[in-house]
Write a structure and sequence with these properties.
- The chain contains 14 helices and 28 strands.
- The strands form seven sheets. A four-stranded antiparallel sheet has the order 1-2-4-3, with no helix packed on it. Strands 5-6-7-8 form a four-stranded antiparallel sheet.
- β13 and β14 (about 310-315) form a beta hairpin.
- The longest helix is centred in the N-terminal third of the chain and has 19 residues, at about 50-65.
């Protein structure tokens, strides 16, 4: 009898213990949790490991539902409702019963209902559907999260989960609520909510801006094409190319873009790039750009928080130089996703082109000019010619043998308009599907990489520099005017072929100086010519007794020189054996700028016979 009583008493005590209010039991467990992770010493205890695993599972479920589930072949279908395009959920979750059952694997019933409501999921013709926008994405790596017990209130456990952001050293903190059910065990009773103290950091600001720019370049290049995937078509006077298969629908493209930018910014991005839908696929005009800005090496400085937007000043190195450009970048926090860039980075007004960048860009422009004029860099057996319209043409090398390839190369240093004009000026044609040019190269002794630049003015959207270029290994120089424009999302570019400062005042025109010193000082007279000119003053003046310049007439000019006809009277010795005659003579000259208000004669010829 006593033994039976003991058994009843023990059983009774067991019942009493299980009936103790949950909050009291949790309070005991809280002490264990405060010491770190506990491995289930008490029955029904929520360990830190369980808390993390439930959050990971919720993240997987959330992503699954946001993308509509896993669609079988031909299962993906859409419809229009309330001026929006909806898609049906996949068959595994396309009824309310199926979806609730799926969600309630980790969520309490009330929160599962809230989940459906917050995602805008509706029932249409007996099936569940959601707006066909973006599946979304998150830089938050829940599988690498850590958990810290916070408190217990009534029947709810609170944990703080610290979640790594992307592949950075940054974290974001969330408060997650859990409840225990006898049949089902622990579940999340409220979706993770970001703690207010969690804010964007300088490091994350840079990484998001860099990811935005990486996405921009990827899309501008059309994506990553598989073999035989690159296809074009002609539309509204332009050649378009389809985007690669990974981003060839709006849903796919938005999914990709919203990894770094908000939904609104992604929509604006697509609009700004002129991306269109054609025959069910996305396409863009066949022309890419490029940028010297190294966003991955940028630094960020917090500016302000206004409403729901945080502003940073991001300073970006340019190329391999010591130059920088400064942008204002805006960020917003997206629920269940994290921080995103909310507007295209904007060049700060105070950021302007510098002397150093001006030289580097024009040097790169001239290097591109020389490269193209040489036909590019030919591989073995690649150099081929053909006869067309009375001239021998050669195909450009494979790296630049289509307009898209050539424009991609040229727009690294010049604007799109300047690149188009460059192609036209060089007489580059398309023949049998490839670009070609007349078989003739040029050359220059100008050392653009050693040039110096002097700011002149800013007029409308163009900045003008006076660039002085050393000639060969001499002490001579040539001066050019170079115009630059800032290209959005690319940086500064040369906007026009460099040209000489050709408005030559009469009192410093080297032709006038030549005639003034011809019979007085041969050294000064010879110095009016470029050093590589073959004209010899001492030979020319032999037999000339007297010379007087009477008229100097400009007859033409190009980007780099001015052409003149000089009228002069000459009195010659009886034994004179040159080309001049007694009385009025005419000579042809070309003059080039060589420095600030400095000019030299390049070519000269007698025109008495004309």
């Amino acid at each position: 009898m006593i033994g039976i009583f003991k058994k009843v008493l023990i059983t009774g005590l067991t019942v009493i213990l299980l009936c103790i209010p949950f909050s009291q039991n949790a309070h005991v467990l809280a002490k264990e949790h405060s010491k770190g992770e506990h491995k289930g010493k008490y029955k029904n205890e929520l360990t830190t490991k369980q808390a993390i695993n439930l959050a990971i599972e919720l993240n997987k479920i959330s992503n699954y539902v946001q993308r509509g589930g896993d669609y079988k072949k031909d299962e993906y279908k859409t419809f229009s409702h309330n001026n929006k395009t909806y898609r049906y959920l996949s068959s595994s979750i396309d009824t309310k019963k199926e979806l609730k059952k799926y969600l309630e694997k980790v969520l309490v019933p009330s929160e599962a209902e809230q989940f459906v409501k917050s995602r805008g999921i509706i029932e249409y013709r007996g099936k569940l559907a959601q707006v066909e926008e973006v599946d979304g994405g998150s830089l938050l790596q829940w599988e690498r999260a850590s958990a810290q017990y916070v408190k217990t209130e009534k029947n709810t456990f609170y944990y703080q989960l610290t979640v790594p952001v992307w592949s950075t050293s940054e974290n974001q903190d969330f408060i997650v609520e859990y409840q225990y059910f006898k049949k089902d065990g622990w579940k999340i009773s409220k979706e993770p909510e970001q703690e207010k103290i969690t804010a964007i950091s300088n490091k994350l600001a840079v990484e998001l801006a860099a990811k935005f720019e990486e996405a921009s370049r990827y899309v501008q290049a059309g994506g990553e094409y598989g073999r035989g995937e690159y296809k074009t078509f002609f539309y509204n006077g332009y050649t378009y190319r389809y985007l690669s298969s990974k981003i060839d629908t709006k849903t796919k493209l938005l999914n990709y873009l919203t990894q770094s930018m908000t939904q609104a910014a992604a929509e604006q991005f697509i609009k700004d790039r002129g991306i269109i839908e054609y025959n069910g696929k996305l396409a863009q005009v066949e022309a890419d750009g490029g940028s010297l800005a190294q966003w991955s090496k940028a630094t960020a400085e917090f500016m302000k928080t206004d409403m729901n937007t945080t502003f940073y000043r991001v300073t970006v190195p340019i190329g391999n130089t010591k130059e920088i450009q400064t942008y204002i970048v805006e960020y917003q926090y997206i629920d269940r996703a994290g921080w995103r860039v909310s507007k295209e980075p904007k060049l700060e007004q105070s950021t302007a082109i510098t002397d150093k960048i001006a030289v580097e860009l024009v040097a790169k422009y001239k290097a591109a000019t020389s490269y193209v004029e040489a036909g590019g860099e030919y591989g073995y057996g690649e150099y081929k010619t053909f006869f067309y319209n009375g001239y021998t043409y050669r195909y450009l090398a494979s790296k630049i043998d289509t307009k898209t390839k050539l424009l991609n190369y040229l727009t690294q240093s010049m604007t799109q308009a300047a690149a188009e004009q460059f192609i036209k000026d060089r007489g580059i044609i398309e023949y049998n599907g490839k670009l070609a040019q007349i078989e003739a190269d040029g050359g220059s002794m100008a050392q653009w990489s050693k040039a110096t630049a002097e700011f002149m003015k800013t007029d409308n959207n163009s900045t003008f520099y006076r660039v002085t270029v050393p000639i060969g290994n001499t002490n001579e120089k040539q001066m050019y005017i170079v115009e630059y424009q800032y290209v959005d999302k690319a940086g500064w570019r040369v906007s026009k072929e460099p040209y000489g400062n050709l408005d030559i005042p009469g009192n410093i025109n080297p032709i006038s100086t030549l005639f003034n010193y011809l019979l007085v000082d041969s050294k000064v007279a010879q110095n009016q010519f470029l050093p590589y000119s073959s004209f010899q003053v001492t030979e020319f003046k032999k037999g000339i007794k007297k010379v007087e310049l009477t008229k100097l007439k400009e007859i033409g000019r190009s980007n780099s020189q001015v052409e003149f006809i000089a009228y002069f009277n000459a009195e010659l010795e009886n034994n004179y054996r040159g080309l001049l005659k007694n009385g009025e003579n005419k000579m042809y000259f070309t003059v080039q700028p060589t420095g600030s208000m400095e000019y030299k004669i390049d070519r000269v010829g007698i025109v008495n016979m004309y």
